[in-house]
Write a structure and sequence with these properties.
Elements: H1 2-19, H2 27-52, H3 65-72, H4 75-124, H5 131-145, H6 165-177, H7 181-194, H8 200-214, H9 218-231, H10 238-251, H11 255-268, H12 274-286
């Protein structure tokens, strides 16, 4: 009868050991596996002790009804059953926790990918401005990525672009005043490409933004205005760059980001000229700012 008890316990433990195999390699999972192994070793030891006593499964006499009742109430079986049930409950609990953690990780990964896309614009333009300007820059990046980017024209041949940044800037401004915005932008871009450290580069960057705005390309203009602001956040063209950025965002229907940019402009530059104040109010009205 003792062998039947041992075999019954082993049959209970065998499915549990198989169920424990796919557990993740966590501390709780390893502890459960170790506990299952210890129970299996106890069963094997009891089997060995029964064999030393001279009994044999093939030669055992049929148990009496009184022996069978005692075996059913054996404390060892009751203890093993309790431990098996507890381990099964812990396995189910761990499997549920694994599913919840996987769902949470998938959600966080999707949020992280979105944040990376929003921050990419700011990272590629060297640092961030104020919180409102940074949010507006992310809005400009999102709007610019919603459609295929406009490919920038190649710089003009070296013979047509003056090597001197002063001469190149003068030629670019002359072209802009003649409403030749493509030539103006190309000449200004050549300064940024070949003489980025020159004093004229700051004005050239702003001229690139102005040219895009004049050509009714708000996506490219927003990026160029934001680059101008980042180049010198306290410079002469910084407030104009923020105003241009707000106007471009409004044209892209990014009204919230445009209003945040206007708020940043008003907080950083508190004494605009009367003409610029009128322009700020006009953009705020178009963006429906409160």
């Amino acid at each position: 009868m003792r062998y039947r008890i041992l075999l019954f316990a082993a049959m209970l433990l065998a499915p549990l050991g198989a169920a424990a195999q796919p557990l993740i390699q966590s501390q709780e999972g390893i502890a459960l596996q170790n506990e299952i192994l210890q129970l299996q070793q106890q069963v094997q030891q009891l089997q060995g002790q029964g064999g030393n006593g001279g009994s044999s499964l093939g030669t055992s006499a049929p148990p009496s009804s009184s022996t069978g009742g005692a075996g059913a109430n054996n404390p060892l079986i009751a203890n093993l059953l309790t431990q098996v049930q507890q381990l099964q409950a812990q396995v189910q609990s761990l499997n549920g926790q694994v599913s919840e953690l996987k769902h949470e990780m998938d959600t966080q990964n999707a949020q992280t990918q979105k944040q990376i896309g929003d921050l990419q614009f700011q990272m590629t333009n060297g640092g961030t401005g104020g919180a409102a300007a940074a949010s507006a820059g992310a809005g400009a990046a999102q709007a610019a990525s919603s459609k295929p980017q406009v490919q920038l024209p190649s710089p003009p041949p070296a013979a047509t672009a003056p090597k001197d940044p002063k001469a190149a800037l003068k030629a670019a401004l002359d072209a802009y005043n003649k409403h030749d915005y493509t030539t103006a932008r190309t000449l200004a871009q050549s300064i940024l490409t070949t003489n980025k450290q020159a004093p004229e580069a700051y004005r050239a960057q702003y001229l690139v933004a102005q040219s895009y705005a004049a050509q009714k390309d708000p996506k490219s203009a927003a990026v160029a205005f934001y680059s101008t602001y980042n180049m010198n956040k306290n410079g002469t063209y910084a407030p104009h760059a923020l105003l241009g950025l707000a106007s471009s965002l409004t044209a892209l229907h990014q009204n919230q980001e445009a209003c945040e940019t206007i708020s940043s402009l008003n907080s950083q530059f508190t004494n605009p000229s009367p003409g610029m104040k009128r322009d700020i109010d006009a953009v705020a009205t178009r963006a429906h700012c409160q």
